[in-house]
Amino acid sequence: MDIARMIDQSLLKPDVIRQQIEQLCLEGRKYNFFSLCVNPVWVSLCKRMLYESTVKICTVSGFPLGASKPEVKVKEAEIAVGDGADEIDMVMNIGALKTGDFMLVEEDILVVRKAIGKDKILKVIIEAGVLTNTEKVKATQIVKACGADFVKTCTGFGFGDATVEDVKLLRKIAGESLGVKASGGIRDYQTALSLIQAGANRIGTSSGVKIVEQSLSVE
Fold it and tell me: What does the pLDDT read at residue 219?
């Protein structure tokens, strides 16, 4: 298993500076991660630095709370795609889900899906740490019905980490047609491996270099 090709190496903190993004791109090329996940302001820089690379560019929309209006998420995603993003990780309207306003949750996802087109990957973050199991099931069902490509566990911004139990649940509902991205608190190879074995087919982490190095030492 080439674990690097399952990793979205992420650098999303608010205090990130240009030199860190440049270093991220160098690491992306060296380790051949599936993608680099950065805040929208850095997408165009990554596009230039990853020229002719197989590493994709991922960015976020409505991040990290999901409480932006649908048209704001659409504009953010459209600009990011225009700047060179290949994948959009949007945060679901979590408050609407917990309220039971499923039509708003669906609209939120559908308008972003339409705006970025079918050739771009759309992942929907459900922030599993603040949901009941019943809500996780409903959220995954909505994500699947709206034509997204992945359901993603967490933002990694302090609302809970990815767990084996959540990934197993999401995979059960997702079936084989919807990807499952585990994200949040994944800092070593064994944690990443346990989540992959539970059903994740993408890992979001800021510890990708460490995870890949550890995987090489076990092989």
Answer: 66
Catalytic residue among 56, 123, 136, 181: 181
**Active-site annotation holds for 210:** no
pLDDT tier at 126 (50, 70, 90 boundaries)? very high
Candidate list 56, 152, 161, 166, residue with the active-site label: 152
What letter does residue 189 receive in the DSSP assignment?
H
Give catalytic status of residue 30 as yes or no.
Answer: no
| Residue pair 217/195 in contact by the 8 Å Cβ criterion | no
Strand, helix or coil at 90? strand
Which of 89, 108, 149, 161 is catalytic? The answer is: 89
Q: Is 89 a catalytic residue?
A: yes
User: What single letter denotes the amino acid at residue 219?
Assistant: E
**Cα–Cα distance, 9 to 28 (Å, whole number):** 8
Q: Specify the pTM.
A: 0.97
Range of the domain at 188: 3-218
Burial of 136 (0-12, 13-18, 19+ CB in 10 A): buried
Tally of domains within the chain: 1
Q: Identify the sign of the CA torsion 108, 110, 111, 116.
A: positive
- From the list 123, 118, 114, 2, the residue with the least C-alpha distance to 54 is 2
Measured in whole angstroms, the distance separating CA 117 from the mean position of its chain's CA atoms is 17
CATH of the domain at 103: 3.20.20.70
